[in-house]
Structures are given as structure tokens and as C-alpha cells.
């Protein structure tokens, strides 16, 4: 059953090439360095200093190699009434990637002014096939604004091995018609600076026209780990982790669905949450979040110690009736819950809730079923030099040999 589900998930991911071993095709190569100069030629021995300059000379299919070191002297490329766009990507088909996976470039935005919201990287509307790979983003400030964003994607982008951490901003924010992929990305310690912004600072936000998240981690962000409120497209969450959301906002692990006071899209998108982990979050682990219809297919997920409930299937009656109801349409199979309310706000028919740890006769989940309950393992540093590592190897919530929970959960 689990292999069939895996094939189903992979069939949803239509990108042309495997995201696990991406191919960065290029027609020409340019280089940039923290000690470069935008008057240089952009060669490996004469690198540029900025993405703006590299983009100006690059064309579709080209690659910009980013040398190691810290980039912190930024000009604002573009502004509107709301945002300062620091790196404004307006050309399609260009790849921006680390020159070496053993020397990760760091982009530090701590000196960028906050007279407007900050978008450290902006993929503009209509821009497609942009790849950004193996960089570290930090220091984005929010000031008194409602929110800022490390990545604001309004076009189409593949973000691969990108980390957003220790900022006051959303990590990865897909909005409007934004689409794309986040693969092997991390967002952590992103905490709004004021009461106003704390509740708007997620690790990953899928509010656009459909995003695939694979092997991504989100922890200690001040709102939610993964949030797809108001999404008009279908989102897929595949082997992702959300844990330790306890910093003051909504604090859900996976908030999958909902439109708040906005008008729901018709038809309402149905998302997929497969082989994901939600642990030690102040609110819900996996949350249907008032979806006016089915929120998701929930397959082979693991939930641990989420204080608002490990699985919460709260729905609304319909797109025309916002009355909250216990969920009746969610599909919940092969999930594992330990140390928390297994499932709540659920009025699901039995055919929709099959082979979960809480409804298999004779099954009792205890600490002895797991190799480790040490949640600190989940913050293990990634090894970008190991292309075979999809997500860090841990023992947390992995089943011991002989456990009768085999086949359940994400490990």
C-alpha cells in the first residue's frame, strides 16, 4: 500500500526531470563573488558582485555560479508601494547556484531598510523556470511592517537546497499565481519582531497556484511551519518535517486549507500530505483549517506531542456556508499518532479513516515502539556534499524491529 501511495505522489510531480538529482543545463556561465565588481566581465577570474548585474547579462539557459562567502552590501533593485525588492528576478530560465556545495554562499540582509516590506529575493510575475540552489539566506528584517519575505515567488521557481534562517521574515512565500518546487530546503528561527508580525511569519507559505514541497524542514518559526491558507492551486507536501513551532503565532505544523474571511476558490483545491512529520508544535500537527470542502489526502504521516491535537480535521460546510463542522471529507490512511490527541474535529466515515494507529484493533502505541524520542535530532545539519542524502538521517520516531506499527507513519 505504501509503495502504491508513493507512486501516486510521484505521479503528481511533473517537472520533466527528477528534483532529487537536478540537472542545471546552461548555455553560458557567469560568476559572482563577495569581492567581485559589477564592472568586471563576469568570468571566473573577474566575477560580478551582484545578482542584478549577473541577471542583466545572462540569458535563458545560462548559469550564474555564486562563489562562497558572505554577501551583505545590497542595493534595492526595485520598489513599489509596499515592497523593497532587493534581488528582483525578472528574467526567465536562469540558474543561480553555489559554485561549490562545500562552500555555501551566505546572503545577509540585516542592513536592508524596513521603510517598506522586504523581499530579499523576488521572482516576478510571469517569470518562469528560475532555479536557485544551495545558498543560505539570513538577517531579513521586518521593522514595523506586517511581514517581510526571504523569497517572494509570484512567477515560477525551483528552490533547491536553500536555507532561510534567523530572520524576521517568512522563509519561502509563494503568492498570487506563484508556482514551483521547494526541494531539500530548510526554514528555521524566523520570528517576527513585533506582535503584529509574529503571526505572519511562516517557514513555508503556499498561497499561490500550486507548489510541491519535498524533503523540506521547518522549525521554530513564529507562525506556522507550512501554511497554504487561501491557496487557489493544489499543493503537495512529500517527506517534510514541521516541529517546535512555539514562538507566539498560530504555531501549527501543517496548516492545510482555509480562506479566513476571503472568498474560497471554486473548486476548492485538494492538497496531498504524504510521509510528513509534525512534532512538538504548540497548536495542531496536521490541520485541515476550516477548509470549505476536502482539505487533503493525508497518507503515512507521523504526529507526536502536538498540544492542539495531532490530527485536526476541522472543515466548513461549503464555499457558500462558512459554518465550522467536524470534517466529513478528509481521506486519512496509514498515519501514526503518539503522545497527543490522535484525531479531533472528525466525523469522517469509516472508509475515509483506514489503518491508522488509533483505529487498528489490538494496536497500542507506546514509547517502546520507537528507536528514539529525542526531538533535537531533527535539527541535524544537512550534508550538501552528499547528493544521496534527501533529508538528515535520524532515529527519532523510527520504529524498532518487531513493532506492530510497521507500515504506519512516515519512517
From TrEMBL:
<dbReference type="InterPro" id="IPR012334">
    <property type="entry name" value="Pectin_lyas_fold"/>
</dbReference>
<feature type="domain" description="Pel9A-like right handed beta-helix region">
    <location>
        <begin position="25"/>
        <end position="338"/>
    </location>
</feature>
<dbReference type="GO" id="GO:0016829">
    <property type="term" value="F:lyase activity"/>
</dbReference>
<feature type="signal peptide">
    <location>
        <begin position="1"/>
        <end position="27"/>
    </location>
</feature>
<protein>
    <submittedName>
        <fullName>Pectate lyase</fullName>
    </submittedName>
</protein>
<keyword id="KW-0964">Secreted</keyword>
<comment type="similarity">
    <text>Belongs to the polysaccharide lyase 9 family.</text>
</comment>
<keyword id="KW-0456">Lyase</keyword>
<keyword id="KW-0479">Metal-binding</keyword>
<dbReference type="InterPro" id="IPR011050">
    <property type="entry name" value="Pectin_lyase_fold/virulence"/>
</dbReference>
<keyword id="KW-0106">Calcium</keyword>
<dbReference type="InterPro" id="IPR052052">
    <property type="entry name" value="Polysaccharide_Lyase_9"/>
</dbReference>
<keyword id="KW-0732">Signal</keyword>
<dbReference type="Pfam" id="PF22842">
    <property type="entry name" value="Pel9A-like_beta_helix"/>
</dbReference>
<dbReference type="InterPro" id="IPR053868">
    <property type="entry name" value="Pel9A-like_beta_helix"/>
</dbReference>
Amino acid at each position: 500500500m505504501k509503495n502504491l501511495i508513493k507512486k501516486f505522489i510521484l505521479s503528481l510531480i511533473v517537472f520533466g526531470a527528477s528534483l532529487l538529482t537536478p540537472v542545471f543545463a546552461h548555455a553560458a556561465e557567469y560568476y559572482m563573488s563577495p569581492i567581485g565588481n559589477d564592472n568586471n566581465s563576469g568570468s571566473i577570474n573577474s566575477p560580478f558582485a551582484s545578482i542584478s548585474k549577473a541577471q542583466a547579462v545572462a540569458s535563458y539557459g545560462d548559469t550564474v555560479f555564486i562563489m562562497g562567502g558572505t554577501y551583505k552590501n545590497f542595493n534595492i533593485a526595485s520598489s513599489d508601494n509596499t515592497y523593497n525588492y532587493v534581488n528582483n528576478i525578472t528574467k526567465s530560465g536562469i540558474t543561480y547556484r553555489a559554485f561549490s556545495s562545500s562552500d555555501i554562499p551566505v546572503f545577509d540582509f540585516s542592513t536592508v531598510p524596513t521603510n517598506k516590506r522586504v523581499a530579499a529575493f523576488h521572482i516576478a510575475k510571469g517569470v518562469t523556470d528560475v532555479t536557485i540552489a544551495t545558498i543560505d539566506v539570513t538577517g531579513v528584517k521586518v521593522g514595523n511592517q506586517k511581514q517581510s519575505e526571504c523569497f517572494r515567488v509570484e512567477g515560477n521557481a525551483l528552490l533547491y537546497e536553500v536555507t532561510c534562517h534567523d530572520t524576521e521574515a517568512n522563509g519561502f512565500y509563494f503568492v498570487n499565481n506563484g508556482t514551483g518546487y521547494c526541494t531539500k530546503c530548510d526554514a528555521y528561527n524566523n520570528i517576527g519582531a513585533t506582535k503584529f508580525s509574529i503571526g505572519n511569519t511562516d517557514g513555508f507559505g503556499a498561497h499561490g497556484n500550486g507548489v510541491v514541497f519535498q524533503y523540506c524542514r521547518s522549525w521554530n518559526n513564529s507562525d506556522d511551519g507550512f501554511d497554504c491558507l487561501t491557496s487557489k492551486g493544489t499543493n503537495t507536501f512529500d517527506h517534510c518535517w514541521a516541529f517546535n513551532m512555539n514562538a507566539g503565532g498560530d504555531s501549527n505544523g501543517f496548516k492545510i486549507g482555509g480562506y479566513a474571511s476571503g472568498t474560497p476558490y471554486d473548486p476548492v483545491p485538494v492538497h496531498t500530505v504524504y510521509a510528513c512529520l509534525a512534532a512538538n508544535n504548540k497548536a495542531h500537527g496536521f490541520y485541515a483549517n476550516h477548509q470549505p470542502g476536502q482539505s487533503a489526502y493525508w497518507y503515512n504521516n507521523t504526529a507526536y506531542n502536538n498540544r492542539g491535537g495531532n490530527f485536526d480535521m476541522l472543515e466548513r460546510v461549503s464555499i457558500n456556508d462558512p459554518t465550522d463542522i467536524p470534517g466529513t471529507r478528509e481521506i486519512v490512511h496509514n498515519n501514526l499518532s503518539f503522545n497527543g490527541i490522535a484525531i479531533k474535529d472528525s466525523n469522517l466515515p469509516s472508509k475515509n479513516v483506514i489503518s491508522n494507529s488509533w483505529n487498528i484493533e489490538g494496536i497500542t502505541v507506546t514509547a517502546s515502539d520507537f528507536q528514539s524520542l529525542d526531538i533535537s535530532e531533527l535539527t541535524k545539519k544537512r550534508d550538501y556534499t552528499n547528493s544521496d542524502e534527501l533529508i538528515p538521517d535520524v532515529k527519532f520516531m523510527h520504529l524498532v524491529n518487531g513493532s506492530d506499527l510497521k507500515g504506519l507513519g512516515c519512517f
